[in-house]
Each structure stands twice: as structure tokens, then as C-alpha cells.
Amino acid sequence: MDFYLGLLQIIGVHTLLGLSAYVVLLTGQVSMAQAGFYAIGAYVAAMCTAMFGFHILPAILVAGLVTAFVACIVGFPALRVKGLMLVVATLAFGEMVRMFFFNFTWRIERGGELVGPNGAEGFRAIRFFPENGWETGDVTVFIWCVVAVIMAVLWWVDNSRAGAVLRAVGHDETAAQSIGLNLTAIKVGAMTAGGMIAGMGGGIYAHTVTHIEHLVFGVLLATFAIAYPILGGLGSVFGTVIAVVFIQGFLVEGLRFMGEWRSILFGALIVLAMNFRPTGLLGERMPRLFKPRPSESKLEPKGAE
Amino acid sequence: MMLTLDNLSKHFGGVRAVDDVSLALKEGEIFGLIGPNGSGKSTTVNLITGLYTPTSGTVSLNGRDLTAMPQHARTSQGVARTFQNIRLFGNLTVAQNLWVAQNGHEQRRQHFVSRWFRPGGEHSGDIEELLTFSRLASKRDVLASNLSFGEMRRLEMARALASNPRVLLLDEPAAGASLDDAELLAERIRAVRDRGVTVLLIEHMMELVMGITDRIAVLNFGRKIAEGTPAQVQDHPEVRAAYLGGGHDEKMEKASA
Amino acid sequence: MDYFFFIDLIQSTVDGLLFGTTYALIGIGFTLIFGVMRKLNLAYGAAALAGTYIGLVMFLTFDAHPAIVFLASAIGSGLIGLVVYLCCFRFTPENYPMASLLASVGMLLFIDEVVIHASHGLPYPYPSVFRDAIIEIGDVWVRGDLLFVFFMCVVAMGILFWLLYRTPLGLATRAVSQQPRAAQLCGIDVTRVNMMTFGIAGVLGGIAGAMTAAAVGVLSPVIAMGLTVKGLIVVVIGGLGFIPGAIIAGLLVGAAENIFLLLRGVTERDIYVMLLLFIFLTLRPGGLFGNAQSRD
After folding, report:
1. Residue among A179, A183, A289, A298 with most chain B CBs within 10 A, to mutate
2. Which one of C39, C107, C236 has the shortest CB-CB distance to A271?
3. Do B184 and A292 touch (CB under 8 A)?
4. C234-269: per-residue pLDDT in tens?
5. To 10 degrees, what angle do helices C144-166 and C3-37 make?
6. B169 vs A: CB within 8 A
7. Is the ipTM of this complex over 0.90?
8. Could you tell me the residue range of the domain that residue A114 belongs to?
């Protein structure tokens, strides 16, 4: 039972990671920086609880806000970089973050021992959950409450004008500008929102594993981050969730019997998916939440072209 | 004056795409801008919308200087344009294409949350009206990429109207259209004018231009070479020369004088 | 700044410039593929590495002469490059570039894992030539093996230029890179050109991989990520789609990397290289030479 709860936890935090990439991807920006934001959120939240005694909830919020701030700053130079080069830039940023934490050491005395990030060794003893009597089940419920809230918000955005605007910018920036949309505000805004979600996800992740280190937040995680929304389809948030469930649940755990060959299969499956269903499992069409009013086409004059 | 261009110039390195052009559009008129290929018509449109910054000169709308304003701000001032090679949002439906374009002055004054996050806004009355006006009501939920060419053209214009502009810049709307299509287009442009929109029409199809415009300006090599009513412009010798290549004869005359 | 530090600086620069030619080759490979297809092949570094391993097999099983090993590496990478093309770029939609991008990432993971499994994650010795030869210029020592690497890479570049500018295939390639639709209308088989481009880029990558391993003397799977990242940095600085830019940027990155190593040590070196990349991206996204081409 604990095994399945643990799996649900992993799916939960990875969903947040995927959703952070989803928001940014809608505007046409392919960002490999989400793993870097995830890392920042992880370290910040862990420092808040383990070093400064915060409760988990404010710790995650702080992590989200700090990461949002960093993402906002990254968002501006990202504007100058078009298309595929953005992939390179964000990849570089992600690696910079990882290497920063590889070198980052800051430990303070707390309860008779030294706690804090310790360079290459990572950050140990992130023990908020066990120290406060949170069982595996409690943690899982907590994670999915957060995921549910964020998914609801994003679903709402998707079905409002903001969602259509994000997608318009992603489709044709020149046309979007010509109809009065402020590209800078929209793209940086998306990057900031994505950063916040990734930061919160990372913050939660740090507490589920109690020990984080730089290696986890590398190119592979960055790849997972964009793979989820692309594989799931940019049409709706549910595509991303389904992709996470599929990849983490089925591939990573379900194929555990295949042992070391899982990773090989993972790569091959991505290649196959992109050839047979390039727009993702759920496709790229936005869902329509509200049924249209009865058609008024009876009023249309005859002889329409 | 509704839209004024004062000594507007745009140089790309050594190329003078637009060279000291001045225009003044009156409110409610349909103003034509013609000239041979490469004469600077599209560049002029891009200068008005803000895609390009002028090398010198100004663009003003109703007395307000737009020259320093970024593109997206000009929409709320009342400038809208269509693109010669249609640039619709193919991943959105017809109604959504109009929805995202509601960035006009009055629309911006709506409350932020309401404007951006109220669900179901794509079914508003304004959008319905515009769809009916453009004869696209039955296609409201069709993806823009699935429309026929004629429908795309109508949507391109409808989207430009969605922000309730004061001035509409039409960039070669009749490109690739037959004469019959052009007649329907002419009707639509007159209907747009009747809604209270001033129209700047860039076109090559002379039948269309001469038929519906109140006044015309002619560009050649970036400079304005003539301005007046359709009749005046048609008889203008320099205009004929520009289109029919009479410049050669003029040079010969001067040489033998 | 004393004399020995100055000598160290020159030594680092020289070593870096010589080794930088491998980065230049990888950069050329990336930029070639981008120039012709307007797409980024993120599996490129991994493909180059895998080909180098094929050369390693020659070395281990047949104790082949280094020349054969290098050749096998080059050809192996070329073939794998073709496979990458077929799997990731041939059938993915033109108007949805994220599909081919993600596919190439999937391919990167796939190849990386296959290589790790086949080699059990262990490093293997790779043949190196002129290891002990040193040319002394004053107090600066020019390593023979680095000189060989430099020489091989320059020869590869020369052959590439000959291909691009003196053969019909090269002409077709340049046509497709400028105007693919028009090229097709002129009767050029764009698919074949794309395939050949991937193959040629693959060969270049294989040479780069072989030379990298030869310079270090050891072949291990971690080289793949390093090659990929360095290659991308080179391409950004040199300008996507601009081959001379890739060459100069490759030398620049090679020298800079070594100088950072001298000044700040191994752990911080990579951060500074990344920083260099980031600065370039924000201040000069078009690369050193500000190249921007548009096409249909």
C-alpha cells in the first residue's frame, strides 16, 4: 500500500513539474529551465523548514514566490531568443542552477546538528514530514490537494480569454501584436507562472525524499518536464496529467520487471509517440467548457459565400 | 484629421523604403494607397501600426502622436490592420480569434479579472454581432485553419474590427480574388465605413480601388507622386509613367532637347 | 602577474585552441543540420559518441590500427546519423517542430542508455597517437596528440568545404538551406539532401568524438552530454546556420574553457562557460556575426 501511495506522490510532484512547462509551452516558448526552477524551489523550501523552522505550507509558498521571481528575471532575456535557441538558453540556465547548487554550502546549527545544503553531498535531513507525524497517506493527500488546486486554476485559465490569448501568442506573435496583445507581459507572465508552479512542486518534492542533491535536477528531469505536456497534448491540462501517469506509473514502475532496459524503452517510446501522434495523446485542440447558445445562423442572409 | 502622416520616412540602410510621405485621412473616408510593387505601401502600413519605427517623421491619430507608442498600445488608440498573407490563429476557433482581439479602448476599461478570466466570454453579444456582420456565424466553432479561403479573408477583417478601431488598414485584401469576389469585398468595405470606421486601402486591383475610394495617394520608390480623387489620379501623367514605364521616354526627351 | 603565470596562460590558450577544433566540428554538425532543415537535432552528440564506440569495438576485438579505429568511428557515426534522421525527422510534421525536437531528445536518451548498457558504464581505453611527442616552443609545450587532433579536424573541415562548394551535392545542399521549396521545384530531392546532410554531419561528429577520446585517451558515456552542451554553446556563439562562425566559436570556447580551468579550477569552470553562453544569448542572440536568414 505504501508503495502505491509513494507512486502517487511521485506522480503528483511530476504533474506540477509538467504543468509548469505546460503554461510556458502554450506561449510557444520551449523551456528546458523548469528543472532548474524545480531545484530552486526544492532548496528554498527545504531551507525554510529544516533551517528556519517554517511549517510546510508557508515554506512551499515562499519557495514558489522566490522561484517566480527568478523565473520573471529569466523571462526577459528569454524574449530576445527565438524558438530553438530558447531551448539552448534554458538548458544552459538549468545547468547553471544545478552547478550552483553543486557548489552551494550553507549550514547552520539546529537542535545540536548542522543542517543545510552541503555542496556536492546535497541537502540531507529534510525531515518536516516525519518530525511532525505526517504519514505517507497524509503526504499523498496533501500533494494532491495542491495539484488539484493548481489544475483547477489552470483549467479555468484555459477556458477563459487568457487561455486563448496565450495560445494566440504561441501560434503567431506578429499577428498577436497587431491585435493589441502585449507580448512582453504575456510571455514573461507565463514564464513567471510556470516558475511558481515548478518552485512549489520542487518544494514539495524535497520533503517527500528528505534528501536532495544537484544530480537529480539535470537534463533528464528537464526533458521529463517538457515531455509531459508535449506527449499529453497542449489542448488541456489533463493531457499533461495523463502523460505523467503514463510515463511514471506505467513505464517507470510498471516496467520495473524489465530492470535496466526501462530507460532504453523510455527513449524509444518517445520517438515512436512523436512519429505516430505528434500533437500528443489528447491533441492540441482546446476543450470548450461552455456549450454555445442556440445558433443564430437563421438570421444569416441567403447567398452567403 | 483622423490619421495623419507627417514627413514619414523609413530607411533600411541605403534603401529609402518610405521617403518623406505625408498623408491626412479625413474621418469616415475610404482612402486608397496604390503604387507599383516595392513602392513602400506595406512599409507605410507597418509604420502606422508600429511594426517599424520611422527614421524620421510622425504618425498621429486624432491629434495624438503615436510615433513612440509600441504596437500593442496603438490598438487601444484605435488602429487595426489586416495582413496581406492572412495571419489567423489557426489553433483557435473563429469566435476565439475575435475574442482575443478585443483590445480596444473601451474594452480595456473593463475590470482586469473580468476581461481576462471570465469564462464564456467568447459568446458575448459583440462577437455574435461581428460574426453575423461577417457572415461567419455558422462557423463560429470551426478552427480557423479549417475555413475556406474566402472565409479566412472575412475572418481576417472581422478580427481587425473586433477592437472597435477608428482606422482600419487593409493590406491588399483582394489579392488572389476574382472580380466577383472583389465586388463583394467592395460591399463589405462600404459596410465597414458605414459602421464609422475610416479605411486606408492598399490595393493593386484598380477596379476595386477606383470604384470605392474617396481619395487616393500614389507611391513610387517610397515617395508620394500624386494625390487626389480617383479621376484626378487616373489622368496624372506621373502615375501612368510609374505603372506603364513611361520614364524612359521622358529621359529621351530631355536628352534630345 | 609573473612570467610563469603568463606562460601558463599561453599554454592553456594553445591547448584550448588545438582541442577547440573538436568543438568546432560538433558545432559545424549542429549548424549544418539546422541550416538545411531549420531544426535542432539534440541527439547529435549522442550519435557521435555511439559511433565512436563502434570504433572502440574495432580496437578491442581486432586490435585495429588507430587509423581504422578513427575511420570506423566516423563512418559509424554517419550511419547512426542516418538512423536518427529516419526516426526523428523524416516523418514528423513540418509545422509542429516540437515533435521532432522531443523525438530527438528521446533518441538522445535511447542512444545514451544503449551505450551505457553495452559498456556497463565503464570507461575504456581509446587509441591515442603521438602521445609522447612534444614540440617545444620556448617554454610552451605543444602536445603531439593535440596537434594531431587539430590536424585531423582541419582536414575534416577542408573536406567539408570541398563537398559544399565544389560538388553538385554541396550545391544542392546550399540551395535547400536557402529556399527548400524553390529547390524542390528545381528538381532537387530534398529528402535525399536531408539524409546526406545528416550522414555528413554524423561523420563530422564521429571524427570529433574520436578525436576527443583520443586526446583524453579514454572513452566513456558521459562524453555525450559534454559534446552536446559544448556543441550547442558553439552554435549559439557562432550563429546558427553559419559554418565559419562555428569554427571560430569552437576555437574560442576551447580556449576560454582552458583559461577558466586555469583561473578558477575544475568545479567552477563549467559555470563560467555557461555564463559565457548566457551572456551571448542575451546580448547577441544572433551570434558573433549576427546572422539571420529567412526563407520560405
Report:
1. A179
2. C107
3. no
4. 888 888 788 888 899 999 999 988 888 888 887 778
5. 30
6. no
7. no
8. 2-218
